[in-house]
Amino acid sequence: MEDFDTAFKRVARLRQIIEEANVAYYLKDSPTISDYDYDQLVRELKELEQEFPELKVPESPTEKVGGPLSRLFTPVRHVSPMMSLDNVFSIEELKEWFQRVRRGALHLEASNHAEAEFVFEPKIDGLAISLVYEEGVLTRAATRGNGEVGEDVTANVETISVIPKRIKFPRGANHLLEVRGEVYMPIEAFKDLNEQQLVQNKPVFANPRNSAAGSLRQKDPKITARRSLSFWSYQLGETRGGPNFTTHVQTLEYLRDLGFPVSTLISLTTSETDVVQKINSLNEHRHDLDFEIDGAVIKLNDLKLRERLGTTSRAPRWAIAFKFPPEERITRLKDIMVSIGKSGKATPFGVLEPVFVGGSTVSLATLHNEDQVKLKDVRPLDSVVVRKAGDVIPEIVGPILSSRPPDSQPWSFPKVCPMCGGPLIRSEHESDHFCINYRCPGQIVQRIAHFASREALDIEGLGEQRVFQLVSAHLVADPSDIYKLKIDDLLKLDKFAEVSAKKLIDAIEESKSRPLYRVIVGLSIRHVGTTAAIKIASKVKSLSALLTVKASELSEIDGLGEIIANSVVCYVQDPVTRALVESLVQIGLGVATSSEVPGDNFEPILSGLSFVVTGTLESFTREGAEQAIRDRGGKVTSAPSSKTSYLVVGANPGTSKLTKAERLGVRIVDENEFLNILERGNLDKVG
Fold first, then answer.
1. For residue 343, what is the domain's CATH number?
2. What are the angstrom distances between the C-alpha of 358 and each of 65, 283, 324, 395, 663?
3. Cα–Cα dist 11/524, whole Å
4. How many angstroms from the chain centroid is the CA of residue 105?
5. 330 in Cβ contact with 400 (< 8 Å)
6. Could you tell me which residue, 576 or 391, shows the higher pLDDT?
7. Residues 28, 95, 123, 334: which is the catalytic one?
8. Shared domain check, 173 and 191
9. Residues 591-601: what's their mean pLDDT?
């Protein structure tokens, strides 16, 4: 048990943080903490109040619903209170809730042995709304507010096309129907809105929920009308003069008959196991939806039993919200640093205070290039929104401007390479910076690691960490040095024993027999990936012949083009890289027979797969990547759909394609994974 004085101070601090977060969330539509962090703070406060009942007060956030009201709108009292839902975050907690409900139902309905029914619903991440119809006409729409009193947003809600303005309802002087649901912004509308914000040099919205809330709280309904809001109904509120119902499912069917949108994902079950399976399935496919959800809601179906189970001060006992693991969190951006790739490309990335998001702990997140950093205006020491959906690379969405330190300064792209001190150059028509020092330690490690990777020489046991060890020990400085290593050299290093050293030397020796196209891939020639390397190998036949090839000869190859041809010739004419190729020739690489070199007739290993390519790839032009897919029997489309197998993402990807792919659950792969697909086929089949 905590010390009382310590608990007293912590409770006071928690209430302050939560109240400040409520103002930011409900009034400013600009949250300062994530939903997940907010829920955890409320949970901690609730547990302390339970442990120290004398600290519990009526005005505590744990006793209240919603947040403060905006002065921009007229306050209106709800016909009946709009309560919140209690949350659970694990299957174990959900099972405890089931047990409490079943015990309560058994106690109340001792003579009724029918098994309790539960309704499963997606938890839409939007803004709760109450719609009041009198004489069948929409007369008032209000936000949840503090549960008792909401904000009158009728004029704005009337611009939402899917919400009926008139319904077929029995006429009578005192007849009334209240419909409750969630106003939300579809993913595509959210994407379009943020693109408009960027064009107008305005701040982007962090997520669809905030954009929906901000759009609904516009003083000018014309602005709301342009924001493409939508609505899901999920419950009847107060009714007077209408039909009577005994179950929740009946009320949903009635709402659907009246013309209200009701989610087709809602289902009825008596099985706790079925609910758990539905939760897992919904979480797995949440990005297939055109709206955001942050969990699932489980409710008792029997309305009379609900009434008898009753409520707490803020939430019904007959319903619970199961919250999914967070995909967005707010954390501190400790620094912005730059990594150097095998071709010298300098990529900025954020160093974060570690944060659990998207199912894993994240401490690094991509920032793509200088333009993206400027566009998002993220700065060291900012509080930032970090997003990671599924297997997508963690990304910094943007800063929390209200938390920015007053002495903050915009981040500037460094002028010198952090690895070698040489200049970082950005060409006029490039979006990326490059370190032009071929001997840069950062490039050396990445270049050798790429040479040994699966898509190139496939040297087992020679990953990036081991390459770094060898480079640091001055045993290798370029790929040709790999073949000079001896067992005695390796035994002088940490984590090498006789067996592991011999195993690596054997793997290096075995790699000498790799076909020519793999050696060309391993050279890290800019714009030359697997497809181009195969075409070049078919033309030159040997690595030694590559040294004398002319650009005109290569550019004649179908699907290669002048950019790749000139890149190859520049590579073999540069004294440093030419010396590397000559060393590899002397070692005996690149002498594969014609039967070992894939020709232009590719196996249809991508048959039945559909691809979309976005962003700039190092190994291909856009057209070259798409042709490589078609050569192998795959299909290429211009935009992701539910039938798309893979979205191939290079540098500076199109935000609309990436967002849509995430929403549809399309598998997103980077360039290295794409090269593996071109060589081996569907990743799901080859592992």
1. 2.40.50.140
2. 28, 11, 9, 11, 14
3. 58
4. 40
5. yes
6. 576
7. 123
8. yes
9. 48
Tally of domains within the chain: 4
In the annotation, is 123 catalytic?
yes
Q: What is the DSSP string of 357-408?
A: ETTEEEEEEE--SHHHHHHHT--TT-EEEEE--TTSPPEEEEE-GGG--TT-
Digit-coded pLDDT (tens) for 218-228: 888 888 888 88
Q: Which residues pair with 88 in a beta bridge?
A: 322
Tell me the C-alpha distance between 653 and 674, whole Å: 15
- 161 and 236, same domain (yes or no): yes
The C-alpha atoms of residue 475 and residue 467 are separated, in whole angstroms, by 10
Taking alpha carbons only, the member of 470, 460, 550 closest to residue 509 is 460
SS (H, E, C) 285-339: CHHHCCCCEEEEEEEECEHHHHHHHCECCCCECCEEEEECCCCEEEEEEEEEEEE
Going by C-alpha positions, the residue among 88, 166, 83 that lies closest to residue 128 is 83
- What domain range includes position 35? 4-63
pLDDT for residue 138: 94
Position 240 pLDDT exceeds 80: yes
C-alpha to C-alpha distance for 106 and 361, rounded to whole angstroms: 42
Percent of the chain at pLDDT > 70 equals 92
pLDDT in tens, 318-345: 999 999 877 788 899 999 999 998 888 8
Q: Which of 277, 307, 323 lies at the terminal end of a domain, its last residue?
A: 323
Contact by Cβ (8 Å): 31, 25: yes
- Mark whether 43 and 155 lie in a shared domain: no
* Residue at token pair 């403060």: 68
Bigger pLDDT: 112 or 597?
A: 112
Instruction: Clarify whether residues 213 and 278 are in a common domain.
Output: yes
Residue 455 domain flag: no
| Predicted local confidence at residue 29, as pLDDT | 61
Q: Is position 509 within any domain? A: no
Pair 256, 262: CB distance under 8 Å: yes
Cβ(282)–Cβ(665) below 8 Å = no
